[in-house]
Amino acid sequence: MFKNMRRFIGKTLALVWAAFWVFFFVASSLSEPSGPITKAFVCLGGIGFFLGSALLGLRWDRVGGMVLTMEGIGLFVLNFTYFHNPPATRLFLLLTLAMPPLLAGILLLTPRPHPLPR
């Protein structure tokens, strides 16, 4: 029953992370005073980035795990080099933006358990 629990947790974590940030991108782009074309591109970009990587992890464990791990590392680096936020916001972004895909990717990349010999 618990043979693939790490993979299940990794896939669930990736989907919850993607759903949260897709909602954030859609809600924030709809509240901005810009044209509908710009809003559509921002929404599609956010959906493609977050949901695309989570869906890769659902279909192909290794590829999705590598993509999620690289996204987590990239977002971690961006959080401290590009985003100029106060320390509390940096910590929030680290815990909600960078850590979930990194952990999900590591969980998806763990080797499958071998069956016990009979």
Question: What do these coordinates show?
Answer:
With 118 residues, this protein is mainly alpha-helical. The protein has one domain. The chain is 81% helix and 0% strand. The longest helix has 27 residues. The radius of gyration is 16 Å and the shape is globular. It starts with a helix and ends in a 9-residue tail after the last helix.
Could you name the key traits of this structure?
0% strand, 4 helices, mainly alpha, 118 residues
Overall helicity = over 70%
Estimate the strand proportion.
under 5%
Q: Name the shape in a single word.
A: globular
Radius of gyration: 16 Å
Average pLDDT level:
85
- In the predicted model, the low-confidence regions spanning at least 5 consecutive residues are none
The number of helical runs is 4
**Structure classification:** mainly alpha
H/E series: HHHH
Instruction: Give the N-terminus to C-terminus distance in angstroms.
Output: 18 Å
Which helices and strands occur, and which strands form pairs?
Layout lengths: L4 H27 L4 H24 L1 H21 L5 H23 L9
Helix pairs in contact: 1-2, 1-4, 2-3, 3-4
Summarize this structure briefly.
By secondary structure, the chain is mostly helical.
